[in-house]
Amino acid sequence: MIEVHKLTKRYGDTLAVDGLSFQVPQGVVTGFLGPNGAGKSTTMRMMLDLDRPTSGAVTIDGKHYSQLKEPLKYIGALLEAKAVHPGRSAYNHLLWLAQSNSIPVGRVDQVLGQVGLREVAKRRSSGFSLGMGQRLGIAAALLGDPRIMLFDEPVNGLDPEGILWVRNLMKSLAEEGRTVFVSSHLMSEMALTADHLVVIGKGRLLANVSMNDFIDQNSHSYVRVRTPQPEALLDALTASGITATPVDGGAYEVLDGDPAAIGDLARDRGIALHELSPQRASLEEAFMQMTADSVQYHAGADPDAPATAPPAARPEPSGPAWGAGWKKES
Amino acid sequence: MATRGAVLLSEWTKVRTVRSTLITLVIAFVVTVGLGALISAITSGQWDKQTASERASFDPTSTSFSGIYLGQLAVIVFAVLVIGNEYSSGMIRATLAAVPKRGTLLVSKVAVVLALVLPVALATSFVTFFLGQALLGSHGTSLGKDNVLRAVLGMAVYMTFIALLSLGVGFMLRKPVLSLGLLMPFFFLISPILSAVPKVKTVAHYFPDQAGAQMVRVTGTSSVPYGPLAGFFICLAWVAVCLLGGYLLLRHRDA
Prior knowledge:
The complex is a heterodimer of chains A (330) and B (255).
Chain A: E1 2-11, E2 14-24, E3 29-33, H1 40-47, E4 55-60, E5 75-78, H2 90-100, H3 106-114, H4 130-142, E6 148-152, H5 160-175, E7 179-184, H6 187-193, E8 196-201, E9 204-210, H7 211-218, E10 221-226, H8 230-239, E11 245-246, E12 252-255, H9 259-269, E13 275-280, H10 283-291, H11 324-329
Helix pairs in contact in A: 2-3, 3-4, 8-9
Chain B: H1 4-16, H2 19-45, H3 52-56, H4 60-64, H5 68-89, H6 91-98, H7 102-136, H8 148-173, H9 176-194, H10 200-204, H11 208-215, H12 228-252
Helix pairs in contact in B: 1-7, 2-5, 2-7, 5-6, 5-8, 5-9, 7-8, 8-9, 8-11, 8-12, 11-12
């Protein structure tokens, strides 16, 4: 069990991680979510004792990382792609790793097969693509057959096939009873893989909930209506005790509304409807709203303007939105 | 804590599975032997044109070792890359995740560099000596003469010290470009120049290469105010300071 206790990391004037405390539940996939620059990678590096905390501590089964005997047998980590000497072959890279923790050399060939790199194992890794480098990093994480696995942005830069492979791997690792802690800045990715969520922004804990609770709390439904007679419709809705909120593009949204009731009401009053569609706010939107105040760099935003949260029930922007993938599968 | 033997084996695997190891050490050998032989041959050929005072201060042993000025650069590159490559590739994080005891890591790297450079240095030193003396002919010396064996062994020790010192600097500066950018000009240009400048040279005498030159000196006069044994300890002190500095920074710094 990984316990993060009041972890703080300061770089000069910047607080990268600010009093962070949480536990990583065992035997499930936990998504470690936050916008870029939220302190995810720094936290993960501190878990492995690579970066030294300004204050606070991380313990693994009650021990500090440096107290672990042969740590690769406890925790396997993928921190960055291609952290490999370009002149060394994949086999030799895994060989020195195995030797350093007294892992049987036979494991090297096993994990190479598991990640599909056996054919290129003897080739210099300088010729590896990003995806192959990522597979080699995952092979290194699997090497010691650890109970706990850390992945920092494992799908970054991967092609769709690679993303699917990583997703399925994480699920199967958790099914084997392993603890999987995976960081991402994409809610849509986490929605597909994670059982539990730890959300941070600006180095602070924003949420520590199970995925189901997060969905219950955040993925509300609403009905979008569009009409050439907005006054008449609003009167009718208000008379029935239904609140409609105007949104961009001349449409109105009714939170938790029933499309049938709204449609019947409009027909009874003789109001024409040009759109009547049930919608679901995506988890991505909920995540963006949660972290909006802590995003460091807003695209195109006035740096002096206060960061404002987008409304929860916004109309879908044209084109594929973040979280669109999640919606399709749910 | 991974066991020391396991870490040592893993560091040995690292060093033997990259090409730069063989390339740099072969270059160190070839350049030191080749340049030493060339300068010995030239000296022998020009003997008649030398003045009496030049002949009086002539040291056939150090003359045959002249190639080390260039050869040591390859030793520096080897030792810097042993650690610098890990920082430039990002592999250092994999290393420290596997071996969180940073002292164990540094000691293992020192042991591997020592185990590899010392035999190469001994071979270089003896081959250079015998080839150089053969080319110097009647002006040469032999191992049996006073202090000559000490100087030949001193040469091997100097090469090994340069490797360990460079490893320490590599740990401190991390990026190989920085380490090489400091060490190569220092040993090839700065130290030889400063040691010829009045007043400044009283300090420059204590630079590691000047101390090393004392270790291989057999005869002849020198303005350096200490002998071979002091030279050994001055060189050793430089190695100790660089490795200690490397250890302290490695221990406290974020990877």
